[in-house]
């Protein structure tokens, strides 16, 4: 069964259309436009809306009857074709671009371009389904820029397999910034920028058994995977020190508010470890494949990068979904001497955590499979590749 392989990204390439729509909307406004901001409506009362901006601020804006309000469909690029709507059509959760009136003494909207929450959700659902059917993701095994062929290892443990990706000249290639898994930070990059060990997500046309895919869209990134023991914790500096089991060297790990930190309950950790080794857990009598998964794709969309921002974490089931549902923890919850696995920015002795998983002692008994598991998890879901939790 196909499932989403990664978290912050996902149906990531599909977000490009939403960012383009925002750019088109901005270009339609004159070049010397007054102050404007993009954000999400959190409340509406009378002729006033409250917007949480992508910068994290909360702004109250009066919307007079003279304000022009346009509804932009996800993927729509021409603002002139957008439908005119009323203030009463706006609701909490809608994404908005607000252009302020420079002649008003108080914040007053001159123009609002909105993307309805329901429209975005429907678009994201369609993209999720498209990635489930025609996407896959994993780690780069080899890349040949001359022939445009990338060999990709998908999944982890006994379900790992190699997929041949053919990247033609018409494929759209994006690459994540070294310190981010936000698609808004990804930039166009040639195939030659991709290296073995990189994380890789592709949408395209698959063959019958999913072992070959002709790429239409690609997103890749280089990140570091670290597994080791916590030797020191400094909550005041928001850092911890981990002794890398692979290099035997200490690594200083910076924990920012964006870091996704979770702890596997002991039973869950032992079940995943058994699954990665191709066995059956000693307790519970069920394999991970038989373990029921409740719920569907989760929201939690990122609020940066465009009106339709929001790759967020969209989990499609299987092992990635299990990891995303593990309890969240803070730096102060970690203990000296415990094992952690993390995906971080690149660096020799000083890195910034993107994702961190505690409670992983049983998983370290299968280091290679665990490495692939965590690597696939780090970029969110959206790919349709196999993972260790499904068959």
Task: Briefly summarize what is shown.
The protein has 391 residues and is of the alpha+beta class. The chain contains five helices and 21 strands.
What do you see in this structure?
With 391 residues, the protein is α+β, with helices and mostly antiparallel strands. The chain has three domains: 15-121, Beta Barrel (OB fold (Dihydrolipoamide Acetyltransferase, E2P)); 135-221, Copper binding periplasmic protein CusF (OB fold (Dihydrolipoamide Acetyltransferase, E2P)), CATH 2.40.50; 224-380, Beta Barrel (OB fold (Dihydrolipoamide Acetyltransferase, E2P)), CATH 2.40.50.320. 16% of the residues lie in helices and 33% in strands. It contains five helices and 21 strands. The protein has helices at 15-28, 117-134, 266-276, 318-324, 367-378, and strands at 7-8, 36-45, 48-53, 58-62, 68-71, 83-84, 95-100, 109-115, 135-144, 149-154, 161-166, 172-175, 187-188, 199-206, 212-221, 224-234, 239-244, 250-254, 260-263, 339-344, 350-358. The strands form three sheets. The chain has a seven-stranded mixed β-sheet with strand order 4-3-2-7-8-5-6. Strands 9-10-11-15-14 form a five-stranded mixed β-barrel. It has a five-stranded mixed beta barrel with strand order 16-17-18-21-20. A hairpin with a 4-residue loop joins strand 16 and strand 17. The longest helix is centred in the N-terminal third of the chain and has 18 residues, at 117-134. The protein is globular and about 65 Å long.
